Amino acid sequence: MTGQNPTSKVVQQRGLWFDEFELGTVYEHRPGRTLTESDNVSFTTMTMNMQALHLDAAYSANAEPFHQRLVNSMLTLSTLIGLSVAQLTQGTLVANLGFTDITFPAPVFIGDTLYAETLVTGRRESQSRPGEGIVTLVHTGRNQHHDVVATATRQTLVRMRPQ
């Protein structure tokens, strides 16, 4: 690369190889992401979810029990997973195999900041795809008050470290 000292150490950001995932390890993903009105309206309309609780401030102000607009739960889920990518799967993920146990135990409101953490709960070599393994991840999203607002279990297919 132009302008680099040939003796400089170069570190490229990437996710973890299969063998680097340790069972029982919790990865905290920072910084968090503040979800804005623009984020919510754009995502909600882009995905054709015309739920008034996401789009209509006047309606939501009178709706029990929250009296304000809710962030689209699919935006919350997408952001929760997205916050983990740089640290865990950037460049090492082959595929998402599935999501289970998705919950939204507390609402997310416009202006809330979402923080994510991931617990590694399973890891096994793929029997059908040499050089790859299946990792089970439990993602937890918390707001700025540390309330759990989303959880999801995800199975991923991850590359093993190249030889």
From TrEMBL:
CDD domains noted in UniProt: FkbR2
Entry-linked SUPFAM superfamilies: Thioesterase/thiol ester dehydrase-isomerase
Signal peptide start-end: none
Coiled-coil portions: none
Domain MaoC-like residue range list: 23-140
Entries under InterPro entries matching the protein: HotDog_dom_sf, MaoC-like_dom, MCH/BMMD
Family, similarity comment: Belongs to the enoyl-CoA hydratase/isomerase family.
Protein name: MaoC family dehydratase
Organism: Nakamurella antarctica
High-level lineage: Bacteria, Bacillati, Actinomycetota, Actinomycetes, Nakamurellales
